[in-house]
Amino acid sequence: MFATITIPFPEYLGKGKATHVYLLKDENTVLIDTGLDSKENRTFIKNKLKELNISTIDYILLTHGHIDHFGLANYLQKEFGAEILIHKLDKDKLEDYRNAIKWFDENYELIIEGGYSREELNEIKNKLINVINMIELPESYRIYENLKLNIGRNTITSIHLPGHTPGSVGYSIDDTIFCGDAAIEGSTAIENFRRELDSLQKLKCFNNIYPSHKKIPLTRKDIEKLENHFIDRLEEIIKITKNGMRLKDIVIRIYGDKIYESPIRALIPIRQVISYLLYLEEEGYVIRKGYLWISTKDSL
């Protein structure tokens, strides 16, 4: 049995995307990701599992260590006795979720030089810390590097898909893969652009691609559209930085000068543009002079 359960985005966190979690029932019962935690979501998923006649969950497989993917894991582990598994490169986020925003601290001065004020960045970070302090982390979990999990007639195999996070994975059965946030219709948040491109190549080997948000399933054509979207973004950055541009101005030019209710959503455009710029810098398409990013070529 295979079922999709779409977990709502809790109101207390502002606006955001619902999370698709996937139930696989064989001799063992597996849940891929869990969605965000809230009182309402605990009731919601418990009722859904009851409708599906699920009384135990043997394994919770996490595609990566972001809160919208493991938020309900501790609750479900206590209620259904599940063992939680996560790739070793994302385990740090289950140890202390402040590790999920390490990149923010690592790029803090770069972001300041790029035109953002310390006041606005510290306000975003304080909001993030407030959310982090409310998170209920799993009490126990198992880490792995390469997973082959026999659940009866089927075997689930992990496929490493870094880019969104270092330890992002997909879980495959035959020509189907559950890919987390490695690919989402239209776009996806990126931490490392080069690794993301490599991961998209891996996804194109599958006929059925189930992401954690928006349209399901995706096809190879959807993955190619996503690749083209990223290439268009790179071309856009090369074009607009011909005469030099600050990070903040690049972000505004591409994403607009929006005020985000959610601190996470406020940071995603900044991180996205940084990932593009660092890739272009590595490839020799842009250089950094002081606080300006300047393109050195007309196109890719």
From TrEMBL:
GO MF annotation list:
hydrolase activity
This protein's source sits in the domain of life called Archaea
Q: Name one Pfam family in it.
A: Lactamase_B
The answer, when asked if Oxidoreductase is one of the entry's keywords, is no
What CDD domains does UniProt report for this protein, alphabetically?
metallo-hydrolase-like_MBL-fold
Kindly indicate whether the keyword Iron belongs to this entry: no
Q: What are the protein's UniProt keywords?
A: Hydrolase
Which Gene3D superfamilies does this UniProt record tie to the protein? Answer: Ribonuclease Z/Hydroxyacylglutathione hydrolase-like
Q: Which residues form the Metallo-beta-lactamase domain?
A: 18-213
- Entry-linked InterPro entries: Metallo-B-lactamas, RibonucZ/Hydroxyglut_hydro, Sec-metab_biosynth-thioest
- Give the PANTHER family listed for this entry: ENDORIBONUCLEASE LACTB2 (PTHR23131), METALLO-BETA-LACTAMASE SUPERFAMILY POTEIN (PTHR23131:SF4)
Name the UniProt record assigns to this protein: MBL fold metallo-hydrolase
Q: Organism, per UniProt?
A: Thermoproteota archaeon
